[in-house]
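Fold it.
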Amino acid sequence: MITAIVLIRAAADRIPETAQAIADIEGVAEVYSCAGDIDLIATVRVHEHEDLAALIPGRISKVPGVVETDTHIAFRSYSRRDTEATFALGLEDAD
């Protein structure tokens, strides 16, 4: 599975509608509105790199209100949840 983080600049008066339209696209896992230079951050998960081309410029960039996108492909995931799950392996049998 390929994960990409898409930073999105959106028209200020269309942020809620734009965010929901992006969230409704298959392959988009989450969309966050945020403060700062970027208006929305979308997490995208697809099976093939070619799917990114179809999804980001082909669908997300064409949503009304999207002004600009900047895509970052993730190489590896680090999270507390992943770490805790790793160390919890086999604990069920320890009792």
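The first strand starts at residue 2 and ends at 10.
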